[in-house]
């Protein structure tokens, strides 16, 4: 990227070659801008799902008390008359029920000097840049570590993160994590997956699992399908966005190919200063690697709340059926939910 990026006009993602240092990655470990003002008071629990209000109250206790509440039985509760104080909470539930809002509320409410908030992929990328030993040194002794969208489908990354968390808990760090679990996912309500339990047997007792039910709030006010523009409407939309800020305009296939040349940890810089994303001629993806890179890109665009304008097939159909039936199903469903929301924003 240039040292003096444009403030208005059209740019192309495929022309951007962002770089990010370890120090910048650490400084970015705060809640996304849309959750800058997230509080427990602003979390609107759906009365149709009592678990939302219960989760809110439990997490308020966690954020302001001495440990995660353990007054009710759960998967990780020991068979003791007086349950132990747990240093971590784990929010398990479907898409769009407000888990990230609650996670950010914990971050803002906890009176801590050293606290961090990031997605699973941000932490693993940071470990990759700094090295494991330096990452442990950086986070050791911190008061709070919030991990959004804990991923279970990469054994290597899962092992690295669980080992890191084990060392941090030993140093007194408290943990709060979320994971998206679609309604038909195996292991829902049981710390997301049995595979994860096998990986972190020594860590499982550190967490109190809090189940949150509900419907995806992103689907409540829209029709459930990504908005598709005609070529003429797309051109008008990009020109309008470019007149008020910076808009990107890229062929979808070329943009996805470019993502292969940019490490996911740099996706946040790829969209730095962008006010609207334009994708022409969207096609269904059949390559798993390309699809997973798109998921990571969509996560960053959603965190930044950048509208997407597109032509071609609806973005909610961008992942082939065989992918939705595979092991990365929950990632794709989360991305679909976010893509629908961004095309309507």
Textual characterization of the structure:
The chain is an alpha/beta fold and 345 residues long. The protein has helices spanning 22-27, 50-64, 99-109, 120-130, 132-139, 155-170, 194-199, 231-244, 252-259, 267-270, 288-303, 321-324, 329-344, and strands spanning 9-11, 88-93, 115-119, 144-148, 174-180, 207-212, 246-248, 250-251, 277-282, 308-312. The chain has 2 domains: 9-20 and 219-344, Rossmann fold (3-Layer(aba) Sandwich); 47-214, P-loop containing nucleotide triphosphate hydrolases (Rossmann fold, 3-Layer(aba) Sandwich). The chain has a 5-stranded parallel β-sheet, sandwiched between helices. Helix 5 (132-139) packs parallel to helix 6 (155-170).
Helix- and strand-based class?
A: alpha/beta
Helix and strand run: EHHEHEHHEHEHEHEEHHEHEHH
Number of domains: 2
User: How does the major sheet shape up?
Assistant: 5 strands, parallel
Relative strand content: 5-15%
Helix content: 25-40%
CATH class of the largest domain reads Alpha Beta
Q: What fold name goes in the CATH topology slot of the largest domain?
A: Rossmann fold
What would the principal axes of the Cα set say about the shape?
Answer: globular
Radius of gyration: 20 Å
Q: Would you kindly provide a brief summary of this structure?
A:
With 345 residues, the protein is of the alpha/beta class. 39% of the residues lie in helices and 14% in strands. It has helices spanning 22-27, 50-64, 99-109, 120-130, 132-139, 155-170, 194-199, 231-244, 252-259, 267-270, 288-303, 321-324, 329-344, and strands spanning 9-11, 88-93, 115-119, 144-148, 174-180, 207-212, 246-248, 250-251, 277-282, 308-312.
